[in-house]
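writing this on my phone so excuse typos. first protein, seq and then structure
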Amino acid sequence: MAEESGRPTSVTRAIRMHWLLVLLGLVVVVLTVVLNDELIRTWAEGRPDLRRVLETQGLQAIKDGAVRPPAFVAPAITLFVVVGLLMWMLLVFFANGNNWARLSLTALLFFAAVTTVAGIRTDPPAVFVVLSVASMVLEVVAVAYLWHPDTTRFLKRGG
């Protein structure tokens, strides 16, 4: 089924899934800023050498301690901007019928899924696990639309 633009519905849906992933990434960045202390607390609880300090002296002792907690906010913002801009650029080429952009978007989603799994393995707060699972579902759906037969025909025509 094609739309007025000449693009099949599968292409439009693939693009929408990618934009939903960008929106979800923005939610994660905002939550990273808002829940930064909770992320630091979870990180400290996962380290036997710091768990006791956290229990006896509190979160501020962890922040001021000799072992510095990892930065969560700056990398989250940087990753969001870089991946969001890359995805936007690739989507422009994909929407115009460039098959290499589909391959690049697929690779980008694969690496996003790998980092999502790695993030879940660090035992983050529950809200991040829920958003990670939602992200993985969207990634699978996006890949399905990227590789839908209608999308393939559209890309073979060159848009």
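second protein below, same order as before
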Amino acid sequence: MVSSADGAVLGACLALAAATLLFIFYIQPDASDLAPHRSKLDQLMERRDAIYDNLRDLRFEYRAGKYSEGDYEAMKNAMETEAAMVLAEIDQVTEAA
């Protein structure tokens, strides 16, 4: 036999489960939720900062003896080239604005 308190708890659990399923499967997100919130300039500046951090880490690891001089120079040149391309894109975006 189910007491009234147990029935209330069971009813609340079923209602919560139904509401959760409706929310997951039937409620569509607003279009503004799907739009990117970062501008192109923000993305480029974030990429630039990541490259600078990677260069700093690379220099530290080279000094710690993890890389040979040839490997270090090759990776450093690749990162510096990528940084130059990102900086050029930042210049294009800021000039266009």
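Helices lie at 4-26, 31-34, 40-63, 69-96. thats all i got for now
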